[in-house]
Amino acid sequence: MITVRRARTITAPRSRIRAFGLRTRLLAAFLLVAAVSAGTTSALTYREARNALLKTTQDTAVATFREQVQQTGFGLPVIQREGLEELLRDLARKGKPRPWVVFAEYGSFRASSGENPVSTVITPQLRRAAQANPYGGFERVVKDGVPYLTIAMPTVFKTGPYSTLPSGLVLYAVMRMTDEQINVDALLTAARDGALPGLAVALVPGLIAARSVLRPVRELRRAARSMGSGRLDTRIAVRGSDELADLAATFNESAAQLEDSVQELREAEARARRFASDVSHELRTPLAGMLAVTEVLDEDADHLDADTARAVRLVSAETGKLAVLVEDLMEISRFDARAAELNADEVDVAEAIRKTLQNRHWTEDDRVHAELPAGIRARLDPRRFDVVIANLVGNALRHGGAPVTVGLRTGERPKGTPVLITEVTDRGPGIRPESIPYIFDRFYKADAARTRSAGSGLGLAITQENVRLHGGTIRAGNRPDGGAVFTVEIPLDTGGLTA
């Protein structure tokens, strides 16, 4: 009886943070965006503040120096050192926003308001600018880690109300910008210190956003696992109206459709099993009568004419095949209904195999050989083990080639579990490699040209089910020197197992 459970909503447990999981990537992306935004904003703010600060100082110094030079009168000749140095010191005292060191150059003549008449921070580029431009020039220079502002201003003589001539004397003002550099460094530190707390604050909404995104994903993963384990009534709670809610709704719809489809398949499978079981049961009674009649007819076939005798033997043979098919269908139906039971008992395995071969008269010729060491005992269901050996040997005789060998030994699985190993080999053409994965399927024919066979097509499938009932495994393969080999492994401690 198939039952349908009420649909239930699951809640996913809190999962741990994986090294490169979706939560980590979401947080990394969120922090990266926050870091880029904060860094860009800080960099732009720092650049604008730095430029404004330096430009203010620079403009003040340049304007003041130009004004002072223009207001200062220079006598001739200009190379009178004592008078010129005094003028330079006077200019230096009037420096803004802070005092300058003023240098004068006239040809090879050098003088300054300081102790050294020559400056090491005045560059050739600034000298060329002073010669080319009557209004002079300026530049910022860093020397030994100390920033300087250097200003060049050529002096001129007025030859008329609107005309001047260069005098050849060029004055330079050199001002340290240490205070400005300190202020710039403070701006950089403030921008950096302001960005780091911003990243820490951005982590909180990042965690909240990641959690809101990952909650439905975790629920979907849990629901998929639950459905994979057979709980087709699993559903996800739909929250909100965003894309994740649409995903949850789509999952629920797909799960409902899958549940309906699986339910229909289960019901169809149950009907098919009942049909096969019922038909098998209904056929047993008339088949029993038919078998009794065919046995009598077989005994009298020698007294009939040739055509009638052939017809009688054909009917008898086909009735026997039908009886085998019905019995196999009933057996496989019991396995499908999980009604098969294992009645295990401690048996001498070698003796059990000999009885199987003797009961089917396979020991009366050289077609079957047995390699059965004595002293091997195991807990087996004698009837089901008999079916396993009979089906494997019969299959080898029908589709393989004589001689067929039945081998017996003990061994161990990789984890050290002792097992009983039974091998049935033949000398036939072997099994085609593409047929090996399907050899135990019901009604599978390895040879597509063989539409009819002496068996029911269920022998190997029933054999596999009996081996599984013992807790064992069976596999098919080919021998290196030709022929098929079927290997059965049954644990030696399987007593009392039931389906």
From TrEMBL:
As its record notes, the protein acts as a catalyst of: ATP + protein L-histidine = ADP + protein N-phospho-L-histidine
Query: Which UniProt key words apply to this protein?
Result: Coiled coil, Kinase, Membrane, Phosphoprotein, Transferase, Transmembrane, Transmembrane helix, Two-component regulatory system
* EC primary class: transferase
Q: Where in the cell is it found?
A: Cell membrane
Q: InterPro entries per the record?
A: HAMP_dom (IPR003660), HATPase_C_sf (IPR036890), HATPase_dom (IPR003594), His_kinase_dom (IPR005467), HisK_dim/P_dom (IPR003661), HisK_dim/P_sf (IPR036097), Sig_transdc_His_kin-like_C (IPR004358), TCS_sensor_his_kinase (IPR050428)
- HAMP domain location: 211-263
The entry lists its GO molecular-function terms as:
kinase activity
| A Pfam family hit | HATPase_c
Residue ranges of the Histidine kinase domain? 278-494
Q: Which residues form a coiled coil?
A: 248-278
Report the principal subcellular site. membrane
EC number(s) for this protein? Answer: 2.7.13.3
Listed PANTHER family? SENSOR HISTIDINE KINASE TRCS, SENSOR HISTIDINE KINASE YKOH
Name of the protein: histidine kinase
